[in-house]
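Model it.
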Amino acid sequence: MFALFLIVFVITLPRVYFWCAYLQQKEYRLDRLRVFLLSAEGKEAIKKFYPWDYALTRTSLKRPHQTMKMILIEGLFSLLFLSALFFTNAYFGFLYAVGTFLILYTCAPVLVLLSAAPFAAVTFVITRSLLRLSSIKVRRYNTTIIGITGSYGKTTTKALLAAVLQREGSLYTLPASHNTPLSIALHILKDYHGEKTLLIEYAAYKSGEISLLTNHFPPHIAVITGFAPQHIGLFGSQQAIAEEKGALVRGLVPGGTALINDLDDGVTSIMKTVNRSDIHVFGISVLAPQFTFAMTKELQFTMTEKSTKTTIQTKFFGTFYQSNFLLAVAAAQQYKRTFKEISQILEHVEPPATALRVRTHTSGALILDDGKTANEKGFMSALELLKQLPHKKKYVVTEGIIDLGKESTKIHIHLARAMKTAGAELLHVGTEGRDVMYTSLGQEPQNPDTMIRDLQKLTADSAMLIEGHIPKHYETALR
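Modeled.
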């Protein structure tokens, strides 16, 4: 009987791995997983009683990274699952055990949530404790804290600022997109050693998260990169998101400075939540007229100061990084740097992993790979770049944008119209916004096999935009 139960458990593993991977993808946050379950993609996933065609191969099975936390969650799930089977078999008989298995299998997402709940409570307590300890550590030193937030462009702006600020003395910046309270606290406790400047990316997935961070790490300079209707499913409204982003500016030390991307109209809604007369606010719209922005034939972004004719030829692709570079220039000017000095620094900055990449496919087709993140502003900018290309055939591969709540339909229709203007064909490889996008484009939805064949038939006169994460079997088809 034990062997039979073990076989049944192995059959269940693909479904359990699938939901554990989603839990991990949502950073073990039950609120984010809840929003996912209410989304079109989440509802579609629940209906998948067993992983579909591509999910059973070693390379494409959606599964979590085996961290210690995930192993503990999987262990608790296994204990609950097998205990229920053994209990019902021992006290009620084999047929009841079969019924229990069917219920547990169907309710695997719920059982994964129950297995994660104790760790969520523990994480809450640990996070608060580590934040206090890391805050005490930072306060030992006369540290200038620079905070970055926004709906997009945080990681890119942080990379540019880090390059500039390294010339102004010792600097500590957290790696990659480590921007949650727990990861910030852990990195500061482990790696911060009293550097003169501390550069922190302040992210938020619920109200009060940025305020929590500013209470422990009040910034001297706050950088607002932009505003987009992202994570509406978590916050409920754009106004709530604006309130949360504005907490970084509200948390400035007296006499602090806010550097804002006021070229983005949405930033106005953020600043309306700020009522401080003891801080300085600098908008990059003052800087923008001093420069011209262009692209090389290789699509690399260039920036030229009109008065001195000094040009930065960057390693970034597309002109939509101009606000990130202007924010970096504004920050450097706080330290009395000239544009010539700034340009010598910024032209050597390597784009972070989240930035758009341009590569040539083995067929000769041009690939615009914006596959690390997806938000409305970035998507629209990438579509504008695709529109400018001379290629005869253009494609957009996307899973859609998640966490948009009630704004999802409107935003996906807006994106579809931009695709139509760019002359692009949609290959939607997910669920979110799929139907409304195909309807807006007047296209018939394609099945996975057809889309993979299309990806494998690219030619030198084709250009393709990959927007957001796509399933592994589609990535494989594009190699």
